[in-house]
Amino acid sequence: MLSDRRPHTGEEDTAATVDETEFRDIHALTPPSPQPSLSRGRRRESWEASSHHWSTLSVGSDALSEHLSTMSREFNAMVVAGSTIQNDNNSNHDAPNLGRIGEEVEETNPLAIVPDHNPIPSPGRAPPVADSPAPVEEVSVHQVKKEEVESKISAWKAAEIAKINNRFKREDVVINGWESEHVEKATAWLKKVERKLEEKRAKAIEKVQNDVAKARRKAEDKRASAEAKRGTKVAKIRRLNWRQGNPSCVLGDICVIFFWSVSLGVGNVDLRVLIYLNFDQGQEAPDNNLFNVPDVLLHFGFDSESKGYQTAVIVKDKIFFEMLTVIHVCAQYVVEGSSDVAKLPMDVKIFDKSTGKWLIPTVLGTKPKPSNGYSVVPVNDDRILILKEDCSAVDSFWFLEVDSPYVKEQKKLLGAEVVAWSKGVVGEGPKPVVISGPSGVGKGTLISKLMKEFPTTFGFSVSHTTRAPREKEIDGVHYHFTERSIMEEEIRDGKFLESALVHGNLYGTSVDAVEAVTDAGKRCILDIDVQGARSVRSSSLEALFIFICPPSFEELEKRLRSRGTETEEQVQKRLTNARAELDEGKSPSLFDHILVNDDLETCYENLKKLLVFDDTTANYQPTVRSFKIPVSHSVSIKDQKILIRCGTSELGKEALLAGQEDSVHMPSTRMQNDEMRSSYLEVLCIVPLTESMSFG
Ligand SMILES: Nc1ncnc2c1ncn2[C@@H]1O[C@H](COP(=O)(O)OP(=O)(O)OP(=O)(O)O)[C@@H](O)[C@H]1O
Ligand SMILES: Nc1nc2c(ncn2[C@@H]2O[C@H](COP(=O)(O)O)[C@@H](O)[C@H]2O)c(=O)[nH]1
To answer: Which region ranges are annotated with the description Disordered (predicted)?
Structure first.
């Protein structure tokens, strides 16, 4: 019967069913059990069957199945106990079975850590049932037993619920533990990740800071080097500029003054040399001050180390310039009384007074060619004038820059003691010529004719361009064909005198291109667009600006097309730009001359008139070039002027003869007086120093 019971999955349902159903079953079907042992055996069978049945119908949890099976066994025991009471009067045979109900069922669940403090009261401990002598009494005993069983069942239920609650509490503890363990783990992981991120961040910040510092340092270096380059370029441009200007002769009653435009090889010195030729012994000098020989820091002494005489100039606590050989020459000259001595080179070394040591500096620039002798005068704190004796005036003036801005820059760059030679170039070259005009007007054609006819007089400035070479165009002859990125960098580096975007390509005139021509002693011709002309006009380069105009716009278009070097699109672009250029070409502030290229030959003749027979070209070879600084002279610096004084009749004669009467335009009355001319001549060169010498 018990084994036929329908299984219940819910424990409370089971208990409730047991409450209501089991007892009805007990009354109806109490089996007479003749032998307690047999009855016990049968009951065991029922339990086993029941247990088996329950376990096979469990809802999947072994623990739950085990638990329910335990409950079932205990419950069955109680029911059987209740049913056997009446047959088993005061027999306690089944007491051990009932007693088992109250026993702690061995807890196999690993979660079971809370002991059950509410055990089911052991039926064994129930007061023994007294013998019932009468049926009435029997009923009441039965009643008592029933109540007792009922109370046990209630107690059992409560105990089961408590067990379940405990079990869930234990589970809850374990779940909480599991939860906190995982939360802790996750938090620890997060902290680890955060720490790693923090480290990465710190590293990234450090890297960025290092990169920034590195970039700054690099930029500094680049800036310094660009600045140095710029300085050099500017100096070059200035030098180009100094070569400009006309030499002029100024006549005076007492003296003849030559104005020489002087330029320097490396430095930034612009000089004008005035030579006072005093013919009359009785005449006074134009400015007495000019004749005051100031402190000339020339020191002569014997250098035990090199066993010779040396000259030194003290500038800013440093002794510059050893002219051992010069003094040696002087000594020879003096002793032997002969000027016929070997030319001797010039060496530079520096005695640093603070350390008491001689330094051999890095010498920049081209040093002067050896001479018979030199005069040495500090001009100011940054350079020393060296006047070569007994050589042509063109090669006489030299400067040793010892602390000029250029030298300062170089010292910084090279991290060494630096000096630089600058040549005072006497005379000047003719102005470069800028030929501009719209594309197709005939600039190139005119320039080619000029070069062909005057190959030694004119030189073409070879521009840089990013445009592709045309057929027959040769790199380095017609253009320096360059990649855009390279050209852009070179423009940034200050390599260009001017540059412009012309018809979609970059074009530019490099300083080197102009220098290459001027260094070859030729007049430089630039073929550039109007933008370029404007740039050159606003630069320090003095030039002659000529604009070539077409006879008409239609003719320009015709020439451009007939040349056949451009695509239709390029022709259109060039024609559009031509209109703007033609407007600009009329600007008198930009161009010195406008030539209309109608008939080619006529235009060429006009160009030649402007260039070949203009004053600049005609006067290119200054007559004063043959002037010589005599051996016997004194050099001094006064009021920002270099004074060179010499005054013997022989030397005067020499200087005068070298000066050439025609170009000097000396007053005829005096020039006719040979006696007077040879009797006395005092020559004073006054060299005013310009701002670029940065006095003070
Ligand atoms: N006076 C002229 N009469 C007729 N044709 C000319 C005359 N001058 C030049 N040309 C022709 O015009 C064309 C353009 O001349 P050229 O190439 O010298 O122009 P350009 O001004 O140098 O042009 P670009 O600025 O594009 O270099 C050439 O074919 C040339 O032979
Ligand atoms: N600003 C400059 N313009 C230049 C230079 N070289 C040439 N040009 C001018 O470009 C156009 C086009 O020349 P093309 O050879 O492509 O026909 C022409 O007007 C030239 O005068 C330069 O160095 N700078």
So the answer is: 1-58
How far is the C-alpha of 58 from the C-alpha of 14, rounded, in Å? 13
User: CA 640, CA 479: separation in Å to the nearest integer?
Assistant: 44
507 CB near ligand 2 (under 6 Å):
yes
Instruction: Identify the pLDDT of residue 232.
Output: 59
Residues sharing a CB contact under 8 Å with residue 460, sequence separation 6 or more, in sequence order:
447, 451, 517, 524, 525, 527
* 491-518: pLDDT as tens digits: 887 788 899 999 999 999 998 898 888 7
Token pair recorded at residue 181: 């363990």
539 CA to middle of ligand 1, Å?
A: 28
Q: Is 5 among the catalytic positions? A: no
Kind plus residue range of the DSSP H or E element containing 559: helix 553-563
pLDDT at 560 over 90: yes
Task: Decide if 223 is catalytic.
Answer: no
Question: Which amino acid type is present at position 201?
Answer: R
Q: Strand 496-502 and strand 505-510: pairing?
A: antiparallel
DSSP 371: B
CA-nearest residue, atom 14 of ligand 2: 439
Q: Helix H segments across 426-529? A: 443-453, 484-492, 511-519
Radius of gyration of the chain measured on its C-alpha atoms: 60
Q: HSE on the CB side for 555, CA within 13 Å?
A: 11
Length of the chain: 696
Q: pLDDT tens digits, residue range 320-356?
A: 544 332 222 222 211 122 233 345 556 677 776 667 6
Report the percentage of the chain scoring pLDDT > 90: 28
How high is the mean pLDDT of the chain?
64
Residue 94: count other Cβ atoms within 10 Å of its Cβ.
21
Distance CA 47, CA 45 (A): 5
**Residue type at 90 in one-letter notation:** N
CB of 439 sitting under 6 A from ligand 2? yes
- Is residue 444 packed enough to be buried (19+ CB in 10 Å), middle (13-18) or exposed (0-12)? middle
- Enter the tokens of residue 472: 């027959």
- CA–CA distance, 267 with 422 (Å, rounded to integer): 5
State the distance from the centre of ligand 1 to the C-alpha of 446, rounded, in angstroms.
8
| Residues 515 and 488 sit within 8 Å (Cβ to Cβ) | no
End-to-end, the C-alpha distance of the chain in Å comes to 131
- Please state which of the ranges 112-121, 443-452, 516-525 shows the lowest mean pLDDT: 112-121
With H, G, I as helix, E, B as strand and everything else as coil, classify residue 127: coil
Smallest-distance ligand from the CA of 465: 2
Of 370-384, 402-416, 520-534, the poorest mean pLDDT is in: 370-384
Asked if residues 359 and 347 have their Cβ atoms less than 8 Å apart, the reply is: no
The finding on whether 566 has its CB within 6 A of some atom of ligand 2 is no
Whether 559 is catalytic is no
Give every strand in the sheet of 308-315, ordered side by side.
299-303, 308-315, 318-320, 350-352, 357-359
Pocket test for ligand 2, best of 529, 535, 541, 590 (most atoms within 8 A of CB): 529
The C-alpha atoms of residue 459 and residue 429 are separated, in whole angstroms, by 13
If pLDDT is split at 50, 70 and 90, which confidence band does 141 have? confident
**Number of neighbouring beta carbons within 10 Å of residue 481:** 16
Give the model confidence (pLDDT) of 189-238 as tens digits: 999 999 999 999 999 999 999 999 888 888 887 777 776 666 655 555 54
Q: How far apart are CA 79 and CA 73, in angstroms?
A: 10
Our CA angle for 448, 452, 454, nearest 5°, is 115
Return the higher-pLDDT residue of 443 and 364.
Answer: 443
Strands 257-263 and 299-303: unpaired
